[in-house]
Structure formats: structure tokens, C-alpha cells
Amino acid sequence: MLESIIQNIFNALQWGSYYSLIALGYCLVYGVLLLINFAHGDIFMVGAYIGFFISTLFLGHYHFFPYVLPKGVVLALTIPLTMFLTSCVGVFIERVAYRPLRRKGANRLYVVITALMAGLILENGNLALLGASRKKFPELLDKTIYHFGNITLTNVKIIVILSAFLVFWLLHFIVTKTKIGMAMRAISYDRFAVPLMGIPVDTIIVFTFILGSSMAAIAGILFAMSYPILDPYMGAMVGWKAFIAAVVGGIGDIRGAFVGGFLLGFVEILVVAFFPSTFRDLIAFTILLIILSFKPTGIFGIAKTTKI
């Protein structure tokens, strides 16, 4: 019984890592712009696909690049290149979809609709360009299985969990200890007064999208290494769940997004451990709804007042 509980805890930490990494991207954009970037889940999908094409390129799957690099080198090249290219996608969406509305002072509802549209364009654009057939992500890391009694751990699972904590620590350091992090917090506090202090608002917003998209890219690669079948709609449900996790944790607070992701991971895995898997989303979302009914601002969220 104890071994089963420990095994489920590790499984929950793995799933919570995916949710937390994506939820951190939601949290960053909302904290700076008060915008819920509903396209973020599909950026996670784009990151997985970009990682697929980069890794297969360096593994010699294409005739125009006949060189075959070692798996370790391919993984070391795939991660930063995927983060860079996925960040370019996120910045492009901000420049084309969100910035024109922001400069025109459009109502927040129109920005939300635009975010939903951007996500649908990414999904269906992927479907139109690559077709409906699924892609198999290559194995970039030789899988090692560790047995501790009846507890089973893989090196991929350990890397996923450690990566999530490392990214959170790095992001927390950037937001709380650097000048650009201070500027991000200043914009979230009063976006209209910040330009008067000489802070380039557009530059900070672009940096925020770079950070958020990079984390989505990391989550996409880690997810694809664990579950190597990719399809154009893989980011839809995962993105929605990560958004819900961010809200439960207290959207706008990176600690809340991180904790909320792991909370959702634990709830889902524990529900599957004791109930049929078909009840997973029903029971998990019911529990999260109960939490929000008692704490509407989320676990770390703080109610804000608006001066008139």
C-alpha cells in the first residue's frame, strides 16, 4: 500500500510538472498585461512540433542534412533551439494579434477573443500544413528504469520533475531579483505610470512573451519525451487544465501557478488511483471548483481594489 502511494506521488509530480510549466506562462502574461493568453496551450503544442523537426533533422532523417549526431548532442541542441523558435512564435502573436488591440485601447473582451482565435489558427494551421497523421517524437535519451521494490522510476521522469523546479527557481529569481523583473512587476501594478519613469513597456512585454513561450517549449519537449505521440490538438486540453491550475493557485502569482499545477497533477493521479479513469476530469475539476468556492482569488491570490 505504501509503495503504491509513493509511486502515485512520483506520477503526480511528473504530471504536475507539465501543468506548472505551462501555468507559469499563463501567469506571466496575465501578471503583466492582465491578459489571459488562451493561445498558450497551443504554443506548447508548437514547441513539441518544433522540437520534433529539429531533433529529426540532427538525427539525419532529411536528405538535405545527411549528418547523424549523437543523441546527447541532439538533445543539447534541440532544447535551446526549440526555446528560441517557440519564443519567436509567441512574440509574433503578440506583435500581430495583441499589440494593435492594446494600442487602440480595445476592450479586454476583444483581446480574449483574439487569443482564442490565435490558438485555433495554430491548431488548424498545423493540421493544414502537416496533415492529421500523428508524429512520433524520436528517443533522444536512452531510457533507464530504476526499481526500488515495487516503485519504478525512469530517468526521464526524474529529469521532468527536476526541470520544473529548476525553471521555477530561475523564473522566481528573474522576477524578484533583476531589474527587468522589477519592471515587469511595475507594469502589472500600474501600466500607465510606468512609461513616465522611462521603462520601455513594449520591450518588457516582449520579454514576458519570450519567457512564457520558452517555458511552454520546455514543457512540450519534456512531454514529448515521455509521451512521444504528437498531434495538432495535443495542447488544447493540457492548456485549459494548466490555465485552471493557474487560477486555482492564484493567477498573477508565479508561486500560485507552480503550486496549482502540482495540485492538479496530484488530484488527477489520486482520482485515477481510487476511481475509474473516466471519472478523472469530473472529480478533479469538482475538487478544484470547491477550492475556488472557498478561496475565489486562488491559493496565493490577493483581492485587489480599484481606485476610482
Could you walk me through the main structural features you see in this protein, from its secondary elements to its overall organization?
Pfam families: BPD_transp_2. One of its GO terms (biological process) is L-alanine transport. One of its GO terms (molecular function) is L-isoleucine transmembrane transporter activity. This protein is mainly alpha-helical and 308 residues long. It has a single domain, classed as ABC transporter involved in vitamin B12 uptake, BtuC. The protein has ten helices and four strands. The chain has a two-stranded antiparallel ribbon with strand order 1-4. Strands 2-3 form a two-stranded antiparallel sheet. It starts with a helix and ends in a 14-residue tail after the last helix.
